[in-house]
Amino acid sequence: MASPTTIAAMENKGVKGKHDSGLRDYAKRRVVKVGTAVDVNVLTNEQQYRKVLAREFNSVTPENEMKWEAIEPTRGQLNFTASDQLVNFARRHGQVVRGHTLVWHNQLPQWLTGGNFTNEELEQILHKHIIDVMKHFKGRVQAWDVVNEPFNEDGTLRDSIWLRAMGPDYIAKSLQWAHEADPHAKLYINDYNIEGTGPKSDAMYKLVKDLKERGVPIDGVGFQSHLGIQYGFPENMQQNLQRFTDLGLKVSLTEVDVRMPLPVTDEKLAEQKDYFGRLMDTCLRVKGCESFTVWGFTDAHSWVPGWFTGQGAATPFDESYRPKPAYFALRDELTKRAGRPSSEFWDK
Ligand code: 9MR
């Protein structure tokens, strides 16, 4: 893999493209960050990817490189090579970084899941992980998905190594440790299928309301927003987001994509455009919706086809980095209405 200096050197050969305007320029006026998940391997290897990334987005989230199995594949040996490359790229291009993710049931290293640790040991291991990783990125990662996907669809807490070892309070403890490690970082809980109202969203609401009341440090809730044109648009999404901001929390759309059954047709692209536009419109209508992040920006590199057989084309750029109708929907929404209240969220 190329070193950070190599990536920087390649950019200096005139591939920056940062003088063309992109979504980030329109987003600035609307006081919302517009971001994407980034695959650092592709960042290293594809010039076109770097160019579009720098031009369009002012927020980045590592798609996999800050997950536990990536950072600590061998116990005690922390490897920040790939994640630092992204953080450095972001710094050079004036992008904020959303860290993803510290406490999850998935993509854990084998030494941890197969380690036969006691509950006390697991709690210590988690504490050390949060402190080590957040201290490493202190001041360079502005927001963290501290806890990822804690709920089942019916609103019960998901069975996980953390729930089993520490009980439901693993969430509050993790947030507290995260706050101690980097008091300026914005701390989020992030989940999917909570965009509309329903048992899972109600459970998230109840959880964060309780955390707020107990004085646990939490800044916001991440609504992943992995949608598909065949499933319908989430019910009452704006009201749903608003009830969270009414608690004094921020909200962000953190992993937006809108998949479709293949093959791609103009009709499906038009439907997808409508979904992307409605998602951005919803975010912009909610004071306190601080960022809108897509989970990959090009169909050339998206998790969707590998996970859902026969589905894909879920992002705003096609496989050749040509903007799709969905892209123009985002741009149109960002240019449409004026007068969104200003926010100091990202400046602190
Ligand atoms: O996009 C990620 C993909 O490359 C990984 O293989 C996968 C493994 O679990 O994780 C994907 O990202 C997920 C994110 O971390 C959390 N929310 C759901 C995302 C899509 O599965």
Count of domains: 1
Q: What average pLDDT do the residues reach?
A: 94
Approximately what portion of the residues adopt beta-strand conformation? 15-25%
Q: Which parts are unreliable, with pLDDT below 50 for 5 consecutive residues or more? A: 12-18
Query: Major sheet, described briefly?
Result: 8 strands, parallel, barrel
Q: How big is the Rg?
A: 19 Å
In total, the number of strands is 10
The CATH architecture? Alpha-Beta Barrel
Q: Separation of termini?
A: 34 Å
What is the succession of H and E elements? HHEHHEHHEHHEHHEHEEHEHEHEH
The proportion of residues forming helix, as a percent range, comes to 40-55%
Task: Give every kind of bound small molecule, once each.
Answer: ligand 9MR
What's the overall geometry? Answer: globular
User: So, the CATH homologous superfamily?
Assistant: Glycosidases
Oligomer: single chain
**Structural class of the helix and strand makeup?**
alpha/beta
Q: In short, what is this structure?
A:
The chain is of the alpha/beta class and 348 residues long. The protein contains 15 helices and 10 strands. Residues 12-18 have low confidence and may be disordered.
Characterize the structure shown.
- The chain is α/β, with parallel strands linked by helices and 348 residues long.
- It has a single domain (4-249), classed as Alpha-Beta Barrel (TIM Barrel).
- Helix content is 42%, strand content 16%.
- The chain contains 15 helices and ten strands.
- Helix 13 links the parallel strand 8 and strand 9.
- Helix 2 (23-29) runs parallel beside helix 15, helix 8 (119-136) runs parallel beside helix 10 (170-181) and helix 13 (266-285) runs parallel beside helix 15 (325-336).
- The radius of gyration is 19 Å and the shape is globular.
- 46% of the residues are buried.
- Residues 12-18 have low confidence and may be disordered.
- Ligand 9MR is lined by residues 63-64, 106-107, 148, 224, 255, 303.
- InterPro entries: GH, GH10, GH10_dom.
